[in-house]
Specification:
Strand content: under 5%
Number of helices: 12
Distance between the termini: 92 Å
Structural class: mainly alpha
Shape: elongated
Largest sheet: none
Length: 295
């Protein structure tokens, strides 16, 4: 209705922030002001496609490890609910004195079986509490800090965030926005409150006249390598091109780290599954081994 009444498309879109991202609206507004709407829309489509590919790569690389982890959990539950109780019934009927490790395992599985409902309720309530806490500002800060600090995964998440931010900044600068405006529009794509606050600090310093690379360095927005590329681009008046290079570099870095993590996680989960099954089997057959050794 707004467009039909003569209102600019970007203004009409601003009334629906839940449908149109701020960066998309900004690209439309820039295109309306410069007469390059088609070019900027294509630029945004390329950006959106790249961000979608990053997200898909991140999700798809976690599918197989998640399947393995689920299988490991399923095996543990099967042994806890079926295998161990079967052995416990046989041993209790025989009236034999069981070794301490076997008694501990049987007591633990008995406790899990007897209090299964309570434990499930506790897990559900804990998950709900975590979800509620993560929705608060303090909770978002805690979990976003945890994402950045986790060993191995922290570097992966940082590469993902830097690639998204750099790509969004490059697109905004290409649309003709000043760097402070481009930074304000691009910050939401990071999806991390900790990095978001660092970007706000950097934005204040840039508005105060400080160089972009220096402001990002003091606010710890990007790793050293990205800062070096950003500084070179700033000195050569090719900031948008430098940001594109940074985005491509960290996209490749993320792909490399994902591949490495997958190669490490998959055998680690297989080892955990093997150790779990083997340990339970040994503990359950331990009385038989001791009985055989006595003769």
């Amino acid at each position: 209705a707004g467009v039909r009444a003569g209102e600019p498309l970007s203004c009409a879109m601003k009334r629906h922030p839940d449908v149109f991202p701020a960066l998309y609206i900004a690209a439309i507004a820039a295109g309306e002001g410069t007469g390059e709407l088609t070019r900027l829309l294509r630029r945004y489509m390329a950006f959106d496609k790249k961000i979608g590919a990053l997200r898909k790569r991140l999700v798809s690389s976690m599918i197989y490890p998640a399947v393995l982890a689920s299988a490991t959990l399923a095996v543990a539950i099967f042994f806890t609910l079926h295998v161990v109780p079967s052995f416990a019934g046989v041993y209790s009927g025989a009236g034999a004195l069981l070794p301490m490790p076997t008694r501990v395992l049987m007591s633990a599985t008995g406790f899990l079986r007897e209090h299964a409902v309570l434990l499930i309720a506790l897990a559900v309530n804990t998950a709900a509490a975590i979800k509620i806490f993560s929705g608060t500002e303090r909770g978002r800060t805690f979990f976003d800090s945890l994402k950045l600090a986790m060993p191995a995964f922290g570097a992966l998440y940082t590469a993902y965030a830097v690639s998204r931010l750099s790509s969004a900044l490059a697109m905004s600068l290409d649309a003709g926005f000043t760097f402070p405006t481009a930074l304000a529009m691009s910050s939401p794509v990071v999806l991390n409150s900790v990095i978001g606050r660092r970007l706000e600090m950097a934005a204040r310093e840039i508005k105060g006249g400080r160089a972009v690379a220096e402001a990002f360095a003091s606010s710890r927005v990007m790793p050293e390598f990205a800062l070096a590329m950003l500084s070179a681009g700033e000195r050569s008046a090719a900031l948008a091109g430098a940001l594109e290079e940074i985005s491509s570099y960290y996209e490749d870095e993320m792909a490399h780290r994902l591949d490495m993590l997958s190669r490490l996680i998959e055998p680690a989960l297989m080892i955990v599954m093997g150790v779990l099954v083997g340990a339970i089997a040994v503990l359950m057959y331990l009385p038989v081994f001791e009985l055989g050794a006595a003769f």
